[in-house]
Amino acid sequence: MPHDHHDHDAPHALLPPDPALRVRALETILTRKGLIDPAAVDAIIDTYARDIGPQNGAAVVARAWTDPGFLGALRQDASAAIAVMGFGGRQGEHVVAVENTPTVHNVVVCTLCSCYPWPLLGIPPAWYKSDAYRARTVREPRRVLAEFGLVLPEETRIRVWDSTAEIRYLVIPMRPAGTEGLSADELARWVTRDAMIGTGLPVRPSA
Amino acid sequence: MSRVHDMGGRYGDGPIDPSEDDLPFARDWHRAALGLTLATGALGAWSIDASRRARESLPAADYNRLGYYEKWIAALADLLVERGLATRDDLVTVDLPQEPLSPRALRAEAVAGALSRGSPSLREGPAPRFADGARVRTRLPARNMWVPGGHTRLPDYAAGHAGRIVACRGCHVLPDTNAHFLGERPEPLYTVAFDAEALWGVAERPGDEVMLDLWESYLEPEP
């Protein structure tokens, strides 16, 4: 029968303890054994350092605010809707959009690890991966949001989405008042990363 | 029954610092850890479920001590040996000979396609047992039914609680088996709403809810 105890002299303990040296050692081993193409590793890093980030999610939200047909598609099948905009793939294979309303505010967490919609928001920030955020958001979301400076109206109920499977949640914040004349491109600048996690609201861009 | 990674609801972690923002990479070795983990994952020797299992199987003291990317790197080394891609000797050999690039290795020109395809977990599978709106109760205790102490995605804080089916998300690969190389065994996956007051005894505000994605075998009908 398979079992799952962890050997106290696990293989990773054979590598140097310093994390930078440990990574360097693994990189050398993997390269020498022909298991990785260093150019592929660089291409992966460049993608997440440069190309993929919250601007993707912001474009989705701004389009949902301005294009009723797209909002309908997003509600029906968000993965298909964002694929049309060129977004999807790793850690965003199955996307669901959750919309804030005057009575419901949504906030996303992963208590078991750090699941996050990478193709829409990029890789997660340190606080999202922190023990405090993972432990507390499901139990005391209002205290957590207050630490982000977000205080919700008394009548608003909170839905906390714990990302326990491969569904990745994108919060669609409410469109701010006074933005009626703005284009989708202008509106996208209001949509912060935290507004799409639920720990913030859209913010007027600085000029 | 829970492991160290299963921290939902835990007390004692202190405040959150929203300015703690390390993006995109705070250290050069963070970027290397991400690149190596994704490139090696593309060999197809393990799934994301096995990766998660390897990270959360670190001894509790190590899990707490190590940072996010340190956990990734430790798990990567352990998986390489577990899956026979490297030996323990390889990990301590200073100057390994250069072998030719494996045909399975991810090439630079294939990176964009691999990342945009991802690894969908949706599969064909049985028809769902529960309809939207149905009342269900989660397994108690939260445990892996195939492997004692094994990987599961039912958090301890939600075990034994009654909830309401909000949506069926189709059939998805079952992590409890897939993480241990015991097959994908796809099952209907549901989003289930739990009343915060029922979960925690007292809610910050009545009517708040916690939503979880749970596989059908985690659930029983609630009369």
From TrEMBL, chain A:
Protein name listed in UniProt: nitrile hydratase
Family: Belongs to the nitrile hydratase subunit alpha family.
InterPro entries the UniProt entry points to: CN_Hdrase_a/SCN_Hdrase_g_sf, CN_Hdrtase_a/SCN_Hdrlase_g, CN_Hdrtase_asu/SCN_Hdrlase_gsu, Nitrile_hydratase_asu
Any one GO molecular function term: nitrile hydratase activity
Annotated Fe(3+) binding sites: 110, 113-115
Cited NCBIfam families: nitrile_alph (TIGR01323)
One Pfam family, short name: NHase_alpha
Keywords: Iron, Lyase, Metal-binding
Species annotation: Roseivivax isoporae LMG 25204
Catalytic activity: an aliphatic primary amide = an aliphatic nitrile + H2O
EC number(s) given by UniProt: 4.2.1.84
Domain Nitrile hydratase alpha/Thiocyanate hydrolase gamma: 19-199
UniProtKB/TrEMBL annotation, chain B:
Domain Nitrile hydratase beta subunit: 126-221
GO molecular function: nitrile hydratase activity; transition metal ion binding
Coiled coil region boundaries: none
Claim: Membrane is one of the keywords in the record: no
Enzyme Commission number(s): 4.2.1.84
NCBIfam families documented for this protein: nitrile_beta (TIGR03888)
Family: Belongs to the nitrile hydratase subunit beta family.
Protein name, entry field: nitrile hydratase
Lineage: Bacteria, Pseudomonadati, Pseudomonadota, Alphaproteobacteria, Rhodobacterales
